[in-house]
């Protein structure tokens, strides 16, 4: 995570993404370390003994760091990096090690098959505009959907309907629903 403070250039087409500085990363690490005991207790109550035996402290902290909104929304930065075409070695070195750790952590967790949904604001993203305007061809039932970056889905319709995710009355959004 400390390497992420070395990012100095904004992510192309993503001026909204906050580049963390050293203080942000220090604060993030402190929040994660403080919350680790309670997360470990929740893991004990909610995941199999097999997962508890396999998952490492670093993996738990990677999931925690990725999902926190404050002191810095790391998920926004990581997803922006994964969605950009920038693949120079510095980006790979800085974001790659954290992303590898995060993916290994997620792969350690139990798999569950549930019905889940995701809302995505269309904004001015060409691929989403095309999908919004041509849903019967691009988003046809049974067609694969590719998400560049980690994509959060919810099983709670209240979250799905929140304007933060689905937009306001005058915003275009696509709602994906995944079933077994």
Task: Break the fold down into its secondary structure elements and pairings.
Elements: H1 22-46, H2 49-54, H3 57-67, H4 74-83, H5 89-108, E1 116-121, H6 126-133, H7 135-138, H8 157-160, H9 163-166, E2 173-178
Antiparallel strand pairs: 1-2
How would you sum up the global shape?
globular
Radius of gyration, CA atoms, in whole angstroms: 18 Å
Cα(first) to Cα(last) distance is: 35 Å
Largest sheet: 2 strands, antiparallel
- Helix-strand sequence: HHHHHEHHHHE
What is the averaged pLDDT score?
83
What fraction of residues sit in β-strands? 5-15%
Q: Which segments are poorly predicted (pLDDT under 50) over 5 or more consecutive residues?
A: none
Describe the strand arrangement of the main beta sheet, using strand numbers: 1-2
Structure description:
The structure is a single chain. The protein starts with 21 loop residues before the first helix and ends with a strand. The protein is mostly helical and 180 residues long. It has a two-stranded antiparallel sheet with strand order 1-2. The chain is globular and about 45 Å long. Helices cover 51% and strands 7% of the residues. The model has no long low-confidence stretch (mean pLDDT 83).
């Amino acid at each position: 995570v400390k390497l992420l403070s070395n990012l100095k250039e904004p992510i192309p087409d993503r001026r909204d993404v906050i580049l963390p500085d050293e203080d942000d990363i220090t604060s993030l690490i402190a929040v994660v370390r403080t919350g680790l005991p309670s997360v470990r207790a929740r893991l004990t109550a909610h995941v199999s003994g097999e997962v508890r035996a396999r998952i490492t402290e670093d993996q738990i902290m990677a999931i925690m760091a990725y999902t926190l909104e404050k002191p810095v929304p790391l998920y926004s930065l990581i997803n922006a990096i994964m969605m950009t075409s920038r693949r120079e070695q510095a980006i790979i070195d800085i974001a790659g090690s954290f992303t590898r750790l995060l993916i290994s952590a997620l792969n350690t967790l139990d798999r569950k098959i549930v019905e889940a949904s995701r809302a995505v604001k269309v904004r001015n993203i060409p691929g989403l505009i095309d999908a919004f305007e041509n849903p019967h061809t691009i988003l046809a039932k049974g067609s694969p959907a590719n998400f560049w970056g980690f994509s959060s889905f919810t099983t709670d319709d209240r979250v799905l309907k929140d304007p933060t995710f689905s937009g306001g009355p005058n915003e275009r959004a696509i709602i994906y629903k995944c079933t077994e």
